[in-house]
From TrEMBL:
Residue ranges constituting the Orn/DAP/Arg decarboxylase 2 C-terminal domain according to the UniProt record: 42-394
Modified residues (N6-(pyridoxal phosphate)lysine): 71
Cofactor: pyridoxal 5'-phosphate
This protein's UniProt keywords: Decarboxylase, Lyase, Pyridoxal phosphate
Active site: 367
GO molecular function, one term: diaminopimelate decarboxylase activity
GO biological process: lysine biosynthetic process via diaminopimelate
Pfam family membership, one: Orn_DAP_Arg_deC
Orn/DAP/Arg decarboxylase 2 N-terminal domain span: 48-298
PANTHER family in the record: DIAMINOPIMELATE DECARBOXYLASE (PTHR43727), GROUP IV DECARBOXYLASE (PTHR43727:SF2)
Protein name per the record: Diaminopimelate decarboxylase
């Protein structure tokens, strides 16, 4: 049986030191932040974001550049942290486009994906400029061409491919089956020919996203090699080099008991073989190869802090009822795509050395049995007024949650950077 509290202990030991028993984030006292800004509260550590970005960039150096997938956390202040490191942005809506611009990115550093782009969003990015629009269906192809015609432009587009069954997926496989995302691989040549026939479109790239929450270096390396082979097919079909090969994101982080971190050393060891593939095809050698993770870069940098309102024992089970819950952090409750509901790492914000831990069910204030933040978190004795924190909460948190449910107030979002806390949302 996996050590249910081992991941939380490991994360505290490596990234979240305690001072006098209180978790520190970026050198600031987490309990003090909760007193200042109230609870529930999201806290993000900019230094940890930068470290994740630099570590990944170094692991894939000489092969790929790293952009940021805005959907993971779309706050402009978060996007700006990565933009300052040199990242571009992958967006999926007009609002995310505006957030990327607000963060200081130039339009040509933005890639626009998503299976259901609105006419208004297509018009906005063509009028304002965009690095590339990733086409996902034939109707969208026509709408982008029509918008480009109205603005007297030739739009740069990429084909998003729904890969065949030979592509390996991650924890949430996104290829090899019927999908709303992208064009099926078996139709690739026909799609290329349709784009080439559109005077207002210029085919500049390919986008492959085979899976998400991948913790296996070998699977990720295999996906990237598969994407390079598809890119070679496209380049051969059009008879010229591609500008961009977007190999997607999909890099995972440990959330649950038994999860281990992605091995960047193993990723780095596999890069020479991928570089050799690129060098063998002159039509790929000049392409900008892109990875665009979101969760991997921002997830470990975030904590969701809630205050205990009441404790109770029901038929032998301990419950901590808090002011935070699934309305702010749906993923932590296990209701954002999880089939088997498992606990994110949950810790006490203040814990005395040597405190005895016991299993707690940590729940929120909502009138639904789904509002559970942990089913068996090993925590010290809790009382009303104590604080708990859900770790690994920087990605798919507040903006991926049903914030209007039961009309509770929104939590503040705080960015800690250089020893200073700044409110960045909502």
């Amino acid at each position: 049986m996996a050590d249910v509290n081992g991941l939380a202990r490991s994360l505290i030991a490596t990234d979240l030191p305690r001072r006098d028993g209180v978790i520190q984030v970026g050198g600031l006292d987490l309990a003090g932040l909760a007193r200042t800004y109230g609870t529930p509260l999201f806290v993000y550590d900019a230094a940890r974001m930068r470290r994740a970005y630099r570590d990944l960039s170094q692991a894939v150096a000489g092969f790929a550049e790293v952009d940021y997938s805005v959907k993971a956390n779309p706050r402009p202040a978060v996007i700006r942290v990565f933009a300052e490191e040199g990242a571009g942005a992958e967006i999926a809506s007009g609002a995310e486009y505006e957030a990327a611009l607000t963060a200081g990115l130039s339009p040509e550093r933005i890639l626009f994906a998503g299976p259901g782009k609105s006419d208004a969003d297509i018009e906005r990015v063509i009028a304002g400029g965009i690095g590339e629009i990733h086409l996902e269906n034939f109707e969208e192809m026509g709408r982008v061409a029509a918008a480009a015609e109205r603005y007297g432009q030739r739009a740069s587009v990429a084909i998003r491919v729904n890969p065949g069954p030979d592509a390996q997926g991650g924890a949430m496989r996104m290829g090899g089956k019927p999908s709303p995302f992208g064009f099926d691989e078996e139709d690739l040549e026909a799609v290329v020919d349709r784009i080439v026939a559109e005077d207002r479109l210029r085919l500049t790239g390919l986008h492959l996203f085979a899976g998400t929450q991948g913790l296996s270096a070998s699977i990720l390396l295999g996906q990237w090699a598969y994407g390079l082979r598809l890119a070679s097919r496209v380049a051969a079909r059009i008879g010229r080099a591609l500008d961009t090969v977007d190999l997607g994101g999909g890099l995972g982080i440990p959330y649950f008991a038994g999860d281990g971190p992605l091995d960047l050393d193993a990723i780095h060891s596999g890069i020479p073989a991928l570089r050799a593939m690129v060098a063998e095809d002159p039509r790929l050698a000049t392409a900008r190869i892109v990875l665009e993770p979101g969760r991997y870069l921002v997830g470990p940098a975030g904590l969701y802090v809630a205050q205990v309102r009441a404790v109770k024992r029901s038929r032998g089970q301990l419950f901590a009822i808090t002011d935070g819950g699934m309305h702010h952090h749906l993923a932590a409750s296990g209701n954002l795509g999880q089939i088997v509901k498992r606990d994110y790492p949950v810790v006490a914000v203040v814990e005395a050395a040597g405190a005895v831990s016991m299993p707690w069910t940590v729940v929120g204030p909502l009138c639904t049995p789904l509002d559970i933040l942990a089913r068996a978190a090993f925590l010290p004795q809790l009382a009303s007024g104590d604080l708990v924190a859900v770790l690994q909460s920087g990605a798919y948190g507040l903006t991926a949650s049903p914030t209007g449910f039961l009309s509770h107030p929104l939590p503040a979002e705080i960015l800690v950077d250089g020893g200073k806390a700044t409110v960045i949302g909502p």
